[in-house]
Amino acid sequence: MGTPFTWRSVLGGLSAFCAIAQAQTPSPSPTSSTAPQFTMPPEANIAPAVIPNIKDPQAVDAQTVCPGYTASNVQQTASGFTASLILLGNACNVYGTDIDTLSLTVQYQRADRLHVAIVPTHISAENATHYIIPPGYLAEPEVGESNTVSDLEFSWTNYPSFGFEVTRISTKDVLFSTKGTKIVFENQFIEFKSGLPKNYNLYGLGESVHGFRLGNNYTKTYYAADAGATVDINIYGAHPFFLETRYFTEGPDGNLALVTSDETTPNSNYTSLSHGVFSRNAHGQDILMQEDSITYRAIGGSIDLYFFPGPSQPEVTKSYLTTVGLPAMQQYWTFGFHQCRWGYTSWAELEDVVNNHTHFDIPLETIWTDIDWMLRYRDFENNPVGFDDESSEGFIQRLHDGGRHYVPIIDSAIYIPNPSNADDAYPVFERGNEAGSFLTNPDGSLYVGAVWPGYTVFPDWLSEGTEQWWTDEMVRYHQITGYDGAWIDMSEISSFCVGSCGSNNLTLQPVHVPFALPGEPANPVLIYPEGFSKTNATEAASASAARASWSSTYPTISVTSSSYLRTTPTQDIRNGALAVAAISPNATHADGTLEYDIHNLWGHGILKATYNSLSTIFPGTRPFILGRSTFAGSGSYAAHWGGDNWSNWPSMIFSIPQALSMSLFGIPMFGVDTCGFADNTDMELCNRWMQLSAFFPFYRNHNILGAISQEAYRWSSVIDASKSAMAIRYQLLPYIYTLFHHAHTKGETVMRALAWEFPHDPSLASADRQFMLGPSILVIPVLEQGATSVNGVLPGLIEGEEVWYDWYNNTVVPVPTQANSTIPAPLGHIPVYVRGGSVLPLQQAGLTTRDARNSPWDILVALDKDGSADGNLYLDDGFSVTPNTTLYAEFKAQNRKLDTFIQHGGWVEENSLRNVTIWGVEQTKTIKFNGHPVPLKDVYFDGNKHTLVVSGFKISAWAGKSWSLEW
Ligand SMILES: *[C@@H]1O[C@H](CO)[C@@H](O)[C@H](O)[C@H]1NC(C)=O
Ligand SMILES: *[C@@H]1O[C@H](CO)[C@@H](O)[C@H](O)[C@H]1NC(C)=O
Ligand SMILES: *[C@@H]1O[C@H](CO)[C@@H](O)[C@H](O)[C@H]1NC(C)=O
Ligand SMILES: *[C@@H]1O[C@H](CO)[C@@H](O)[C@H](O)[C@H]1NC(C)=O
Description:
Bound molecules: 2-acetamido-2-deoxy-beta-D-glucopyranose
Oligomer: single chain
InterPro entries: Gal_mutarotase_sf_dom, GH, Glyco_hydro_31_C, Glyco_hydro_31_CS, Glyco_hydro_31_TIM, Glyco_hydro_b
Structural class: alpha+beta
GO molecular function, one term: alpha-1,4-glucosidase activity
Domain Glycosyl hydrolase family 31 C-terminal: 747-840
Domain Glycoside hydrolase family 31 TIM barrel: 327-739
Strand content: 15-25%
Signal peptide: 1-23
């Protein structure tokens, strides 16, 4: 395929580096092992900067110069209508070529989903992927019955040009409106804009590191980038979905009045309505949130919008997740604690780490390796030094015997061997190349970028043989080292040089990446993380080296305004160019699709392929995959972590809004590198963070090469803090697992924002320094260095409608007089509350989830102000995609009686019931189990704490019958 657009080739075809490489370095003798390794010059990763048009004072405003469209030829369909949109006057060709005829389709697809699509009327096989996501790549939103009844109304106008509006019929509230603005649709530029209420509450639009409520002065850029967990820029994933929540007060006439002020106090007179909008466009784009509007600007694709009426957040989320794909169910063991670091050097060291956790009584479920396990950073080959094939067998066996697991990193790029060095064989590449699995240049030659092992090629998920080749390699490697899950990294897809930089340089292989690895001699800049002891010179030096070389991965391009490329993309992307830190837009897929058109989908492709691989290796078992780059729907395949964060307090703070956003995106299995990835952590930060992450679904400690060790056992205070938080987590495992069952089957969320659980309280709209785990657990972490208390909100207390119990002392928290209360939280203590009205099935803490799962049950009933509570429990074998047997139990407490309703799906639970604990009991009468009095010796009542504990049950917990307890 040719290069239809000049700037595509400008960005993609830079060969500056090739010239540099050839001029500076004579090719080393291919067989000489003493020749110094060639290091790519840093210039290899620099491309000319482009100025995004939102930052370009001279950028032409498409709204001013473009003509818009006019609708005609309206045809009713079974579930909506279609129309033609014709360019209304002369083309503006502002950032591309205007498309003169578009097709509009409006379809009421389900009661909870309205679809509005605008695509070019004339597309061909050759240009389809410029506009439409390749069919089959993502889950296709299925369409329900025709003539569905919806609370959404679509209306449109041709004056002054075509614009449309989506209204909530029941409230006449306009949710989205392009009326009065122009639709701009060019081959490389699309713009449309909707008004929004003042002070709107918009959430989602990720992946980003940003406050939870996005604010009205923020541009979200979409272009998957290996850019660390950096605040406010485009990072690893693309989820162009938002939730908007509007708060109303009810007037005397019963009409709702929109609240547009941030100054609100919680009271029961407020109500809120939420809706969702998903833009199914995988192209690079900027979404501009401004004072009273939202503007979409994409460099391709189409207008492909899905509106979800809600009207509650859970309903919006369910509608969205049943559109893009429900989250994968995870295996029970994945909820245990995971330990990783870049810098573990051998199987023996991994085993030491495991044994050290046991020695200090710290639960550990899974040990992970970063790229250290690989021979020369090449996928699927163990480094014989430290990670030899033979020893891996015993290592894995001992892990599994102990109920533990192993997950290695797997990189996305594949090393391409030196063609003139027969010793440089890499069969993984040869087999993939034979299967036609790799991306090419437009001329058909292999596209050769660079990642850790040197020059690399990149799998092409649109090529027919690629998935099979990938699975074969995963299977082959699993036969050598029996890993339990896969950690997919660098999948943005990252490349450390601009363009196909290795094409003419393969005889230099293996080359060194164009920066020093952490710990390698670099140019140390002494920057200390907060709280880091400057007296520890060795640690300081290693941290600085780590930091210096880490930042150099992403050179900041100094630009002067004269050197910008103007008239090109609209995007506010990191480093100013699409080709930096990622493969270039002209990398070509087997069917001719350019990377430009599907860049944001690469990460989703490898997750799907890896899911199939693990399904082959472990038939019938839920694959466990941790993926870095994700797209809408990736949660059906994988878990996700927050990427390369820093060992500092802001990174810990941002982990909460990151997780809440991932809840909206359907990736509930989320967590961040606990204690921080880059730079040295310190005792206090790690202490607080190990406690915070214990309440995130995915719980892993991980750090960078060269930084100080940060396993929990490195500091005695962190040992204690970790054990105390982990004890709660492990007791709650049945609850967390049940939450995942609801997420997987119904699209419920696991980690929740306060705004979602307390929709009548506008003062919680921005709350992202505390969160709920499911409906019942409230966590108020300390996020500030040196603090011994934390300001937190116990929602609902002002009106007295909620009761909160302190997890640690089982008592009701006294009602504070203000919304914000100061909660004592010395180092090592994380405030955790149980919401009155909850029934929590608990098991005992253990060193592994296997131990915990084989322990007796407790049931905790936390009564609300009316003396009621409910809850539920889902159980199965913990790993099967389609379990043969399951169990679902519901608990309902009211009028001093707890009833359990057990629906057997054949699951036989062997573990006995130990205690039933009831919080909030004022007084007791005769305690009866199934109508029979319970002997006094089995009853404990603390009238001061209002706590009743009943024990002595002679049943296995869920033996088959529903049962009741009266007090
Ligand atoms: C796509 O290609 C076809 C055939 O080459 C052409 O007729 C059509 O105008 C193109 N469509 C767009 C929107 O560029
Ligand atoms: C919007 O953000 C920009 C950059 O972050 C800042 O300079 C500007 O002052 C902000 N505008 C308003 C109205 O807050
Ligand atoms: C709620 O509304 C009622 C009637 O409109 C009013 O009397 C009352 O003061 C309001 N409550 C609060 C807490 O604002
Ligand atoms: C295990 O713990 C001991 C004692 O704290 C420590 O000296 C050693 O470095 C640890 N080993 C590993 C691999 O973490």
